């Protein structure tokens, strides 16, 4: 199908941020996945020491978008003993604001999912068609929309400078960044809701989306990118510091071009991505979820992955350990890290055995 870029054709797009030399491409470590794991820990510890010197953003606000069902076998990969085939996850958007050294204001939306269009992702579209409406309505709850939350916060659409996702699974960005041609399903040619915003994405993911592997196809909506303007994207290679206390760290595995948001706040360092769906998945020895602690002990694995895709599982494991190394411990319960899942496990009576031991619920920060 037609695509704005082909494999190897994204090198001329603009980039953003200051490269983090401490965090190198672990795929270049020659001695295999075990050596890469050790390198992930060492590099994470080094960046954790230097990152606070960049400062803190002005504010971070959490906005709930939607709670939806998700297969237990994906979200708690191999570890869960829950009888429920589905658990619930809540998708949330983070709104991060800061000023550059020249006084320029920046507004980053992390995970601004257009969940109305995201439902047409092949996997979720198929699941919806097979689920009776009465059950689907009980398991799916809409909390708010991206435009609605921004209006509540007093942020004008033209003030948004950056959009970012940990990866582009399920995402349809046409209403956010506009298109270069009319869209039949949208009733015309949508104007960009965020006319000044650029999408920060790993170059690896843009290349992969141009030539999807069959394992990837259930989770992407490639047709939604056929007519998006290429100049709306800011591809990066690896990890960068975007602003004071705001960084993007490359965390491949869940997808080839996965990335995590790292924030330095008044409570220390936070990390956010969908590599895992609960903070306790980083310290399963403290989890009361059925099976997790026992599974971790038996197989001597220190993290429980979110594994709806298994593009490079060992790399994802190493990336999660990097995230765990970067994050400070929660002030509410030091057994758990300040890892804020972009899709967080949420207890529901419909899903017995999947109620989380600990939830963050929100990530908030305001500069003193």
UniProtKB/TrEMBL annotation:
The keyword Zinc applies. The keyword Hydrolase applies. InterPro entries: MBL_superfamily_lactonases, RibonucZ/Hydroxyglut_hydro. Keywords: Hydrolase, Metal-binding, Zinc. Its cofactor is Zn(2+). GO terms for molecular function: hydrolase activity; metal ion binding. Belongs to the metallo-beta-lactamase superfamily. PANTHER family: METALLO-HYDROLASE RV2300C-RELATED, QUORUM-QUENCHING LACTONASE YTNP-RELATED-RELATED. This is Uncharacterized protein.
